[in-house]
Amino acid sequence: MPTASASAQPLRRVGVPLFFGLLLLLGVWVYRDYGVSWDEANNHLNGLVGLKYVAQVLVPKLAAREALNRPWIPDIRQFPDSDHGAAFEMAVSVLGYLFTDGDSRSFYLLRHLSVFLMFVMGVWALYQLGKLRFQDWRLGLLGASLLVVSPRMFAEAFYNGKDIVYMSLFLLAIYTLARLLQRPTLMRALVHGVATAAAIDTRVQGLQLIIITFAMLALEARFTKQPVKLSGCVLVYLVATVVFVVMGWPYLWATSVPDLLTAIPKMGVYPWPMTNLYFGHLIPASRVPWHYTLVWIFITTPLPYSFAAAIGFGSWLKEAVRTRLNTLHTFSGRLDFLIVLWLLAPITFTIVFKSALYDGWRHLYFVYPALLLLAIRGLLSIGRVAKRYGQWRRLALGTLVLAGSEVVHTAVCMVQMHPHENAYFSFLPGSVAERLFERDYWGLSYRQGLEWVLANDPAPQVPISVPWYITYYNNSLILTPEQRARLLYSHRDSAHFRYFITAYRWHPQSYGDSVGHEVHAIRVGGVKILSVFKKN
Question: Has UniProt tagged this entry with the keyword NAD (predicted)?
């Protein structure tokens, strides 16, 4: 196992702060470039609903103020999404009241920056976890770098306040769990409980962290012979988790115990009545085939990461079988088991229980860091082959060079695709990808479509139609007030629209000339993600 030598420590003191400093600067540079996704306005409303209820309970005078007493902010008991975790959205809403001028553009820019800062925290947690597992800060930094050079993850790190924020908090909780396993103390158990609660308060699926924690503490008790010490940690962890979950989830304050018991089974299953474009067919989300998640992971993850992770998993499995799981006697062996459990258990659960899935594999983004840690293990395995077996040395070294070149190529692609990295496909030709799979399912490119129309049509009012009003409305929120004033929404069935903008969701086929002639298109990696038509 590699160790960071003393001579590398000065480099670490410079390299790590430089990496995270540059990442923050990059985020500040580009966070203004993205549109508003399909879910953002409703997620913000969820935050306002929760904040309004908290104010009503704790500070009634504050709740009576206009900012929280607007008629379009429903009561928490009548809001259908109030059982969705709202801790992050509530925090961003508070920041919006404190630091913006009340205009929608300034709020959504602040929100995008806030999501990115949560992503940076997740990158930091992955760095720490990789450093802890491999006992080398350079490998920790490699894992953090691979997460950043993941096109879809990087793009969604600016607007996906559910899945990316949850991934970051889940990562943080896994790191706090690893520290607890390394040295069980009551303080570390408390910190892990807070981290677990933060994840649960974002998505109820965070409850699986409790199961993972119990499983790993059971292994710890089995192989380290310290059950008395661990029992105190378990108690502190459970109390902290319950207390902070309730503190951060106003829905639990407003719900009676019988209603809560009725709602719990529904919280982890979000019925979605729409369809996914999958291998060229529109399939209901509740009936996606078992391989849906696996295929989406493969076609949207850079190939070197996938292959290295497969090698890493293979090396772990070979070692586990050869030693008959004796590796669990070591801390690093138990961490490896945790990483494999983290990656495979959630995916297996969705396959076995036939979970409703949509929008690619975003509901399972939180397993992606585990894949990257296995990829690092795979790279180390290739490196060991190069050292031990002369006849395989050239092939192993060539593989590492090729993988490194592909990572650089991925970074270049991200620059070329910006701000549409969310439409990245790892190896599919553009014509194949747009025919077989969803493209810009978030609807972000509508922002660029609206901006193009306003820049190229001098009329004081521009009638525009879209297939789904929400994509038009959401992306208008991040335009300037002057731009919004020129927009005039027209229903497609009316005869008054001048432009028709589409991202081809639920209509992957060509529109022909049914809505006019195409005057503008956005292509990313050969994939057409948006078209602007002008009425004939």
Answer: no
Give the pLDDT band (50/70/90) at residue 120: very high
Longest dimension (CA), the chain: 78
Q: For helices 186-200 and 163-182, what crossing angle results, to 10°? A: 160
H or E segment and range at residue 520 = strand 517-524
Q: Give the SS3 label for residue 524.
A: strand
Question: In residues, how long is the chain?
Answer: 536
pLDDT at 267: 55
- Which residues contact residue 322 at a Cβ distance below 8 angstroms, ignoring those fewer than 6 apart? none
Peptide bond into 419 cis (omega under 30): yes
Q: How far apart are CA 162 and CA 145, in angstroms?
A: 22
Decide: pTM greater than 0.85: yes
Q: Is the model more confident about 263 or about 280?
A: 280
Nearest Cα neighbor of 123 from 103, 160, 150 is 150
CB 94 within 8 A of CB 51: yes
Strand partners, 268: none
Query: Per-residue pLDDT tens for 129-176?
Result: 999 999 999 999 999 999 999 999 999 999 999 999 999 999 999 999
- Cα separation, 160 vs 39, whole angstroms: 8
* C-alpha neighbours within 13 Å on the C-beta side of residue 267: 20
In this structure, is the dihedral angle defined by the CA atoms of residues 52, 34, 120 and 23, taken in order, positive or negative?
negative
Q: Please, which residues bridge with residue 524 across strands?
A: 527
Asked whether the beta carbons of 153 and 32 are under 8 A apart, the reply is no
Task: Give tens-digit pLDDT for 355-392.
Answer: 889 999 999 999 999 999 999 999 999 988 878 877 77
pLDDT digit string, tens, across residues 292-345:
999 999 999 999 999 999 999 999 999 999 998 899 999 999 999 999 999 999
- Residue 194: how many other CB atoms lie within 10 Å: 19
CB-CB contact of 487 with 453 (8 Å)? no
Cβ neighbors of 263 (< 8 A, separation 6 or more) are 83, 255
pLDDT digits (tens, 9 = 90+) for 67-78: 777 888 999 988
As a whole number of angstroms, the distance between CA 352 and CA 343 comes to 15
Which residue in 376, 380, 383 sits closest to 397, CA to CA?
383
Strand order in the sheet with 462-465: 487-489, 462-465, 499-502, 527-534, 517-524
Q: What is d(CA 110, CA 47) in angstroms, rounded to the nearest whole number?
A: 14
- In the block, residue with structure tokens 């929008």: 359
CB 41 within 8 A of CB 477: yes
